[in-house]
Design brief:
By secondary structure, the chain is an alpha+beta fold. The chain has five helices and nine strands.
Length: 163
């Protein structure tokens, strides 16, 4: 009887761990010495802009969506991994600062709000919130994760506001 209880408890624990792994969110904290792989800035200095990516079995931290996208589009330049090996992408909603799925977020481009590295894609959990921000902050457009292009990132990195 005791053996059955131990086996049942072990099976339950394994089941719980598997569930937790599939719903894995971003690590709670970024270390104070952790640097963005694109620009080299200390990421923890900008907690509202942090982006977390799980790729190839490891967590990466970025100081904004723009740098994460540069890493995604040009992994060979920044020691990144191929796009197909990128798993979870977590960003913070601009207003609530809650972690949201970066692949489902709506990003405002070309606004008068700047991130740690200047022009930035500003993330939101919902399209209506992104639309309000776009109007209030003179944004130029709203894009989704899959709608972001390497050309858009290059123009933002050059510091150009979209026309």
């Amino acid at each position: 009887m005791r053996r059955m209880i131990v086996v049942a408890m072990a099976a339950f624990s394994l089941f719980c761990l598997m569930g937790a792994a599939s719903a894995e969110g971003p690590p709670a904290k970024v270390g104070p010495r952790e640097r963005c792989p694109v620009c080299g800035m200390f990421v923890a200095k900008y907690p509202n802009w942090i982006v977390r990516v799980r790729a190839d079995g490891r967590w990466y931290a970025f100081d904004g969506v723009k740098d994460m996208m540069a890493w995604r589009f040009h992994p060979e330049q920044y020691g990144g991994v191929p796009a197909e090996k990128i798993g979870a992408v977590w960003v913070r909603d601009y207003y609530t600062l809650e972690w949201i799925d970066g692949r489902k977020a709506f990003y405002v481009v070309g606004s008068d709000v700047y991130g740690p590295m200047g022009h930035e894609l500003v993330p939101f959990a919902s399209r209506p919130t992104a639309e309000n921000f776009l109007r209030d902050h003179r944004g130029k457009q709203i894009v989704t994760f899959d709608g972001v292009t390497a050309e858009l990132i290059a123009s933002l990195r050059r510091g150009m506001r979209m026309r």
